[in-house]
Specification:
Residues 1-171 form the Macro domain. This protein has helices spanning 31-40, 42-54, 93-110, 129-142, 157-170, and strands at residues 2-7, 17-22, 65-69, 77-82, 114-117, 149-154. The protein is of the alpha/beta class. It has a single domain (2-168), classed as Leucine Aminopeptidase, subunit E, domain 1 (3-Layer(aba) Sandwich). The structure holds ligand AR6.
């Protein structure tokens, strides 16, 4: 699998699937979640509501992932995953790794070959950047998948630098 880092806005990605750093309600929020729903239009939220009604009445659990249409985005699907809120007192790394693994599993189910990820949990959920980047890159590199290319789409230079340094350690 090819891993590429880009600095940019994930809503502009022309790939099979973009991953959303959602929350368990699946009803939208700020950060990348807000941007995806804003640019993707109401079709995404409609499908999230239907998924809640049919499968996730109690919310999508942390570390899990589920796909919807990408609405008006140039991608084909949005894969919504719920990252863990960072805790100083409890090691939640395995849940963050699970977001990447589960997203790739959903991508495989869809037949997606190109997938773009944001830095899950590294914004509002407060995960220290270097650690979030290390978990992201290592997990993706170690996952068995049919996905041929993973793009980490990083919103600012500091996030890009953290991923660049993390990637250097797995190559
Ligand atoms: N493209 C790529 N990355 C982005 C974009 C974008 N358009 N916008 C923000 N980022 P966050 P979290 C970066 O806060 O920490 C929401 O309210 C951002 O700079 O979006 O997992 C959800 O509903 C950061 O590097 O996600 C949840 O409640 C990274 O994306 C909660 O936030 C992740 O930041 C999830 O928090």
């Amino acid at each position: 699998m090819r891993i590429v880092l880009v600095e940019g806005d994930i809503t502009e990605e022309r790939v099979d699937a973009v991953v959303n750093a959602a929350n368990s309600s699946l009803l939208g929020g700020g950060g990348v979640d807000g941007a995806i729903h804003r640019r993707g239009g109401p079709e995404i939220l409609d499908e999230c509501r239907r998924l809640r009604a049919s499968h996730y009445g109690g919310g999508l659990p942390t570390g899990k992932a589920v796909a919807t249409t990408a609405g008006l985005l140039p991608a084909r699907w949005v894969i919504h995953t719920v990252g863990p809120v960072y805790s100083e007192f409890e090691d939640r790394s395995e849940l963050l790794a699970s977001c990447y693994r589960e997203s790739l599993r959903v991508a495989d189910d869809l037949g997606a070959r190109t997938v773009s990820f944001p830095a899950v949990s590294a914004g509002i959920y407060g995960w220290p950047l270097d650690d979030a980047a290390r978990i992201a890159v290592r997990t993706v590199a170690a996952t068995q998948t049919q996905v041929a290319a993973v793009r980490f789409v990083l919103f600012s230079p500091d996030v890009y630098t953290a991923f660049d340094q993390a990637l250097a350690t797995v190559r």
